[in-house]
Design a protein that fits this description.
heterodimer; A: alpha/beta; Udp-n-acetylmuramoylalanyl-d-glutamate--2,6- Diaminopimelate Ligase, Chain: A, domain 1; five-stranded mixed beta sheet; 5 strands; B: alpha/beta; 7 helices; globular
Chain lengths: ~110, ~230
């Protein structure tokens, strides 16, 4: 599954400057220290933490994309940071559980 | 004596703050904003407090020595001392309990330790916004026992505040709570409410402040002054 296919799952793309690589899995967490310790390269991060530190942590771990759940929108500086790092950004009204299930199903 | 105070200011040591936030620039910004008292509160590190102490002494700017500690649940909490030495001692315990993530300056920003003149003498190695291993429920009594004023930061912000991280504001003996919105969240009325700038850039210093009527610029006198805010 390509990163761009997250669009087809109904997630709204907020930042489309990224290399459309294969997603290798996902990690769902709202605690950034946990994300830093456990997210693996090429995964999509599923979270409600829609702030700039999230992008920094995602880039440190080599995340391919970030999905902000529960309709959390991203401020301009968040989108800019993600563009600089080439990390795809999506938002959705769905909660973390539903997004995780959708992405997990699509990856099977 | 009524004082305009801003007790939430970051220096260049915080990775997210502007590099021009040197101790003297902070004092100059505070004077320009007409503040009567300030505190330096970098994320997880107190190593710019000695230079801040000098800059404030030179300018006769009343100051507190603080830091913004990050609990294991990623709740930001202001811990403010009226003496430099206990602040350094407490702050180093906090720094030592931060997770072992090295800072990547290209991604997160530089973390320079500076002299009063702004000369760089070193860098904090660990990523300073990373969480400590100390639970918020332990951090608050630890800070109070060490002699600090303890004020949970931006409790109503959608990230890195007590309510976003824990779901509610635990019933602990805070000296005050820092609020961002015009109306404080319900259930927090029993604590004095303060507003500070959380300045990361010189022009932000004093953009939010609190007026207190304090008899002296000490932890006990400021604690009493915060209590008087509840009667207003």
């Amino acid at each position: 599954m390509k990163i761009s296919e997250l669009n087809e799952l109904g997630f709204t793309c907020l930042q489309n400057q990224f290399e459309d690589a294969d997603l290798v899995g996902g990690y769902t967490s709202d605690l950034l220290s946990d994300v830093m310790a456990n997210l693996k390269e090429g995964q999509v991060l599923i979270t409600i933490q829609a702030h700039k530190n999230t992008i920094a942590v995602a880039s440190l771990s080599g995340a391919a994309a970030v999905i902000f759940c529960h309709g959390r929108s991203a401020a301009a500086d968040v989108i800019e940071a993600a563009a600089n790092e080439g990390i795809a950004l999506f938002t959705t009204p769905n909660n973390q559980f539903d997004v995780t299930v959708k992405v997990s199903d699509a990856l099977r | 004596m009524t004082m305009k105070i801003d007790f939430h200011i970051h220096s260049c040591l915080s990775p997210c703050a502007a590099l021009e936030m040197s101790p003297r620039a902070i004092v100059a910004g505070a004077q320009a904003a007409g503040l009567d008292g300030i505190a330096l509160t970098d994320h997880g590190c107190v190593e710019n407090l000695p230079a801040f102490h000098k800059a404030c002494s030179e300018a006769n700017m009343p100051c507190l020595y603080g830091l913004e500690a990050t609990s294991s649940e990623e709740v930001h909490t202001l811990c403010l001392f009226d003496q430099l030495e206990p602040a350094l001692e407490f702050g180093r315990i906090i720094y030592n309990s931060i997770g072992e993530f090295p800072n990547d300056p290209d991604r997160f920003g530089q973390q320079p330790i500076v002299t009063v003149d702004g000369d760089v003498t070193g860098f904090a190695d660990k990523l300073l916004f990373a969480a400590t291993t100390i639970s918020f429920f332990d951090l608050v009594p630890m800070a109070l026992e060490a002699g600090a004023l303890c004020i949970p930061s931006h409790i109503d912000r959608p990230y890195l505040g007590a309510i976003s991280q824990l779901g509610f504001l635990p019933d602990l003996p805070y000296d005050a709570v820092e609020v961002v919105a015009q109306v404080p969240p319900s259930g927090t009325e029993k604590w004095p409410m303060v507003r500070f700038s959380d300045a990361h850039h010189p022009e932000d210093i004093g953009r939010c402040f609190t007026e207190v009527d304090a008899e002296a610029f000490t932890v006990p006198a400021l604690r009493e002054a915060f209590q008087r805010l509840l009667q207003k």
